[in-house]
TrEMBL record:
The keyword RNA-binding does not apply. Coiled coil: none annotated. This is GGDEF domain-containing protein. InterPro entries: Diguanylate_Cyclase, GGDEF_dom, Nucleotide_cyclase, Rev_trsase/Diguanyl_cyclase. It comes from the Bacteria. The keyword rRNA processing does not apply. SMART domains: GGDEF. It comes from Paenibacillus helianthi. The chain crosses the membrane at residues 6-27, 39-56, 68-87, 99-119, 125-146, 158-180, 192-213. Keywords: Membrane, Transmembrane, Transmembrane helix.
Length: 392
C-alpha cells in the first residue's frame, strides 16, 4: 500500500508540473501571437486542472469531505471549458453543443452533490463522477475518430480517447463489483486506476490540442499558398505545378487534353461603374459557376486579375468545344446581390492529341493568341488555336 501511495503522489506531481509548464509555454507563445478565444479556453482549462491537482495533493491535510465536492465542481468546469476549446479547434462547436455541455455540467454537479450528501460513505458518487467524465469526452472522441476529417493525428486521438473511455468505464464498474469497494470508500487500487485515467485524459487533452493546433496552422498555410483568397480556386503557382504534373501523366498515357484561357470581358468597366467590391463579387460568381461545370479531374485556377485557366482531362476537340461553350453560356444573365449584372467571357482553347509532353508555357501562348482573336472578333465567344503544339 505504501508503494501504491508513493506512485500516486508521483503521478500527481507529474500532472501538476506538466500542466504548469504547458500553461507557461502557451502563455509565452500567445504573447507574440494574435489572441484567440480557442487558446484562451484551453489555458483556462489547464489552470482549473492545476487547482484540481493541488487539492488532490493536499487531500490528506484538508480532508476528503472538503476536497471531494470542490474537486467535482472544478472537474466539471474544467471538462466543459476544455471540451469547448477542442471542439472549437475541430470546427464542431455550435450553440446546440454549448447548451448540451452546460446542461450536462449542471445536472452532473447537482446529482453528484446530492449523492455525496445522501450517501457520503458509498462508492456511488465516485462512479457517477467517472460516468460524467465519460459523457464529457464521448462527443470529442466521436468527432476525432468517426466524423472528423480523418487525418492520421485525429484518428490516433480518437483511438486514445476511446481507450480512456474504456478505462473510466472499467473504473466505474470496479467501484461496484470489487468486494473491497463494498467495505471501503476508496480502495487504493481503484484510486490508482482512477488517477491513471485522469493522467491519460489530461495528457491527451494537452498534447492533442497542441498537435491539432499545429496541424491546422500548417493546413491553413497550405491553403493560403495553394488557393486564391478571393475566389477560393487554385492560384497561378499551384495551378502551374499541378498542371505540369497532370500533363506529364497524360502524355505517358497518350490521353488527349485541352487547355483553356478565359478572360471576363470589359471587367474594368465593372470596377469603374459599380466599384471594386462589386467586381470582387463578379469574380466570385464567375469562379463558382465555372467550377460547377467542370469535372473532378479538371483543373481550374486564377492566373491574375480577370484571367483564368482550365485544364480539361481526357478532352478532345469535340468534347472541349462543347465544354467551352457550356462555360461561356453559364455566366450569362448573372445576378449579383439580387441585381442583374450581365457579363460575358471570351475563351481561347488548344487541344493536344499526341502523347508528346507539351510545355505549359507553349499551351499558354497558343491559347492566349486564340483568346486575343476572340477579343478582336467581338468577345463573348470561343476561339480555337489551330497551331500544332508539338511543332511550336
Amino acid at each position: 500500500m505504501i508503494a501504491v501511495h508513493l506512485d500516486l503522489n508521483t503521478l500527481l506531481v507529474c500532472l501538476f508540473f506538466g500542466n504548469l509548464f504547458t500553461v507557461l509555454l502557451v502563455i509565452a507563445y500567445r504573447s507574440r501571437q494574435s489572441k484567440d478565444r480557442t487558446t484562451g479556453l484551453f489555458v483556462a482549462a489547464k489552470l482549473l486542472q492545476l487547482v484540481i491537482v493541488l487539492l488532490l495533493m493536499q487531500e490528506d491535510f484538508l480532508g476528503l469531505r472538503f476536497t471531494l465536492p470542490l474537486n467535482v465542481l472544478l472537474s466539471l468546469a474544467a471538462g466543459t471549458v476544455e471540451a469547448f476549446s477542442l471542439l472549437k479547434l475541430l470546427g464542431a462547436y455550435s450553440g446546440r453543443i454549448r447548451t448540451y455541455y452546460f446542461s450536462l455540467a449542471g445536472l452532473s454537479a447537482l446529482s453528484l452533490l446530492l449523492i455525496y450528501i445522501l450517501y457520503p460513505d458509498k462508492p456511488l458518487h465516485i462512479a457517477s463522477a467517472t460516468l460524467s467524465g465519460v459523457l464529457f469526452i464521448v462527443y470529442p472522441a466521436y468527432i476525432l475518430g468517426i466524423k472528423g476529417k480523418k487525418t492520421p493525428l485525429q484518428e490516433m486521438m480518437g483511438l486514445l480517447y476511446g481507450i480512456v473511455i474504456l478505462t473510466l468505464l472499467g473504473r466505474a464498474a470496479l467501484t461496484f463489483y470489487t468486494p473491497a469497494a463494498r467495505n471501503s470508500f476508496a480502495p487504493e487500487i481503484l484510486q490508482t486506476l482512477y488517477y491513471i485515467g485522469v493522467y491519460l485524459l489530461m495528457f491527451l487533452g494537452t498534447s492533442g490540442f497542441m498537435l491539432l493546433s499545429r496541424e491546422q496552422s500548417y493546413a491553413e498555410l497550405e491553403r493560403v499558398a495553394t488557393f486564391d483568397e478571393l475566389t477560393g480556386i487554385l492560384n497561378r503557382r499551384s495551378f502551374v505545378q499541378r498542371a505540369r504534373s497532370k500533363i506529364a501523366d497524360l502524355a505517358k498515357g497518350n490521353i488527349p487534353f485541352s487547355f483553356l484561357l478565359l478572360d471576363i470581358d470589359h471587367f474594368k468597366n465593372v470596377n469603374d461603374t459599380y466599384g471594386h467590391d462589386t467586381g470582387d463579387k463578379v469574380l466570385g460568381d464567375f469562379s463558382r459557376k465555372i467550377q460547377g461545370q467542370l469535372g473532378d479531374s479538371d483543373l481550374f485556377g486564377r492566373f491574375g486579375g480577370e484571367e483564368f485557366a482550365v485544364l480539361l482531362y481526357c478532352s478532345d476537340e469535340e468534347t472541349s468545344g462543347r465544354t467551352a461553350e457550356q462555360l461561356r453560356r453559364c455566366v450569362l444573365d448573372a445576378v449579383i446581390d439580387g441585381i442583374p449584372m450581365p457579363y460575358t467571357v471570351s475563351i481561347g482553347i488548344i487541344t493536344v492529341h499526341s502523347g508528346e509532353r507539351v510545355p505549359l508555357n507553349t499551351l499558354y501562348r497558343l491559347s492566349d493568341a486564340a483568346l486575343y482573336q476572340a477579343k478582336q472578333q467581338g468577345r463573348n465567344r470561343v476561339v480555337r488555336s489551330r497551331e500544332t503544339p508539338g511543332s511550336s
